[in-house]
Specification:
alpha/beta; 434 residues
């Protein structure tokens, strides 16, 4: 029976010495004693779960794809991803589109992969069939998504969709910005300040408040995506119907540090000032937000407008799937947070949101034998060309991040170690009945 041991294993929100035994890809016992693999003082954490990943395949495989994305996941300690319904073509808004997505992913994935469905105008009739087909839940937009094939919902359509997903017992994930408060900007297109002003904090805060009202009337569980502001987090905390997430780029960077034309930093909602960064950390600490996900959304250099530095035209997405643990640990440890807390934000809570918490997100008997072996005292200087992402563009370029991923184990099998990913070992998952 395979065993691993460390003096620092993250178990049930605490870190302690343990020997973990697993068989046929499942943890069967947690105890003490010697082990086949003894990692000394390295930290053994549950394999990370990233519930917000844009793989973009089929249709935009030149942006990202299942092969490269899941290799990046494995190299970063992530053993399960949940793919977003856009920016693939077709978007995952029907049973047929879901089948095509799964066919495309077959044989390519290095980590386990589940899927979100999407809701766009006219697609509500597909919700029931997609739930039966095993999607983890549904994503919708209140504002322009950036791609024409995934338009936003009007408020009446959004409330109607919430009623359906509430009946189905799955969450609705929402990009919450008020379109009436999002503006085009017509001054210097290389100005980050101008881009930031075009998507003010009020646009997020007001949209979250409306989402809470609609969720309360419909009884839906609504999860607010990529929260960027303290006001947004406060409004989530004020509603019993809402949960929320944030992303490493909002926790690491701040607007004051982003120079003119630095389009690798462009995302929507935007990275805000340092006060909002600290407010997001406080919201995580207080439980107003309960997870940190990548929102991995890469694009080629021409679409990111790397040469022109044009924020008005650049794609608003950041590629960071491989760096989520290191980036969050770098910023979190500097603020006094331990890896026990990070395990909840990076593993346990994303797994629960996606309906995978019965098998993923923790080290416990009966759970999948998914682990990341992490050296919290190591360091790595980041160069995009060293990452497994399809494109090397990253706002972390040249930064030294704390911690190194030593090994990633998926259902008992090594899928990453010493810079090498074992491809094609992942499974496609359906939402479990929790």
């Amino acid at each position: 029976m395979p065993t691993l041991r460390s003096s620092r294993v993250v178990l049930g929100g605490e870190m302690r010495p343990a020997t973990v035994r697993h068989e046929s890809g499942v943890v069967v016992e947690i105890g003490s004693g010697t082990a086949d693999e003894d990692y000394g003082d390295l930290v053994v954490m549950p394999g990370l779960v990233d519930s917000h990943v844009h793989v973009n395949e089929p249709g935009r495989a030149d942006w990202e794809g299942f092969g490269s994305a899941t290799k990046a996941a494995a190299a970063g300690g992530t053993t399960t991803i949940v793919d977003m319904p856009l920016n693939s073509i077709p978007p995952t808004v029907s049973v047929d589109a879901l089948a095509r997505k799964r066919e495309t992913a077959s044989g390519k994935i290095s980590v386990d992969t589940a899927f979100w469905g999407g809701i766009v105008p006219g697609s509500a009739g597909e919700i029931g069939g997609m739930v039966e087909a095993g999607v983890s839940g549904f994503k919708a937009f209140m504002v322009d998504s950036g791609v024409e094939e995934f338009p936003p919902l009007e408020l009446t359509e959004l409330e109607a969709a919430m009623l359906i997903v509430a009946e189905a017992g799955v969450p609705l994930l929402l990009h919450a910005e008020d379109p009436a408060l999002v503006f085009d900007f017509d001054r210097d297109p290389q100005s980050y300040e101008a881009y930031l002003a075009s998507r003010p904090t009020d646009s997020e805060a007001f949209a979250v408040e409306v989402a809470g009202e609609l969720a309360g009337r419909s009884g839906a569980s609504v999860h607010i995506l990529h929260v960027s502001s303290g006001e947004g987090a406060e409004r989530i905390g004020a509603s019993q119907w809402l949960t929320g997430e944030t992303c490493p780029h909002y926790l690491v960077f701040c607007a004051e540090e982003i120079g003119a034309g630095a389009t690798p930093f462009k995302c929507a909602p935007p990275i805000r000032d340092a006060n909002h960064r600290e407010a997001l950390w406080a919201a995580l600490d207080a439980g107003l937000l309960n997870m940190v996900v990548s929102d991995h959304s890469p694009a080629p250099a021409d679409i990111k407008e790397i040469e022109s530095g044009d924020f008005a035209r650049a794609w608003g997405g950041i590629g960071s799937l491989q760096l989520r643990l290191q980036a969050t640990w770098t910023a979190g440890s500097a603020r006094g947070f331990g890896l026990e807390r990070l395990a909840g934000w990076l593993s346990t809570n994303p797994a629960a949101l996606a309906g995978l918490g019965r098998r993923k997100g923790a080290i416990a008997e009966g759970m999948d034998a998914d682990f990341v072996v992490f050296d919290p005292d190591g360091s790595e200087t980041i160069y995009g060309t060293d990452l497994f992402h399809r494109h090397p563009i990253t706002p972390y370029e040249g930064m030294t991040l704390r911690g190194t991923v030593v090994k990633t184990v998926l259902r008992g099998q090594n899928v990453y170690s010493s810079g090498v990913v074992s491809g094609g070992t992942g499974l496609m998952l359906e939402r479990y009945d929790d």
